[in-house]
Design goal:
Layout (H helix, E strand, L loop, with lengths): L2 H40 L3 H4 L14 H9 L2 H32 L3 H15 L2 H14 L6 H25 L4 H8 L4 H12 L1 H16 L3 H6 L7 H6 L9 H32 L5
Length: 284
Amino acid sequence: MKPNQSFHLQLKKRTWKVFIILLTCFLALLFLGPYIYLLLTSLKPSSEAVSSPPTLWPSKFTFESYIGMFEYLPIGKYFVNSLVAAVASTALSVFLGALGAYGLSRFSSKIGNVFLLFTLSIRMVPMISIAIPMYMIIQNIGLIDTKLALILVYTSINVPFAIWLMIGFFDSIPKEFDEAARVDGCSRFGAFMKVILPISLPGLATTSIFTFMLAWNDFLFALLMTSTEAKTATVGISEFLTAYNLDLGPMTAAAVSFSLPVMIFSFFVQRYIVSGMTLGAVKE
């Protein structure tokens, strides 16, 4: 290759690399922009948060809005309700989904394939179409405005998703692991708990983060199923906006606080998420 051609080729590669970096930075800023504005608004004085025209940078940083959000509403109670419902439903969904996915993976049959297709079909149904039937069922069993109602609803919604997501992980684990555990004296359930689950930890982490986010971010079912005692943070944050007033400062502070649990959880399980997203992608 001539030196001139080599120079042009390197220049083309560097130009393309710079373009990709700039495009990535632009897209990152595009997605992070609203959250940065939300964060900065939560640190503004209350009068400046609703100023017109709005400003990006606070004249002074203050935690006035974070203190005020507890004075307007029992937001701490709402956060606890959200956390209990999300954590409990995530644990149940992942465990039951793992059992279902393991059974479908290891005992493949025509009935199992029909059941898997059925679980996928459930996820395709719009949530608004099953909200009223869910409400009637919860009302008939006397669980309206309880955290147990939210846990049951979120679990029933997330279990099909967990099965669909985890079956690929179990398919990628050789059946020889099960057979070796059975030879060593484990029961089928013992082999699942002691051998298969530890191996599929990346898949469990990936499924957990998605099911937790679905439960944590829910607004529709929390609005229908709760009124006072079991009200969640998503419904509570919406109450900063009324027909006569908008408490933008406390609302943004509550929104930032609401996003922290998912961010912290994602930070601790991020090493499992990357490997978990590709674990069941390729079958050997």
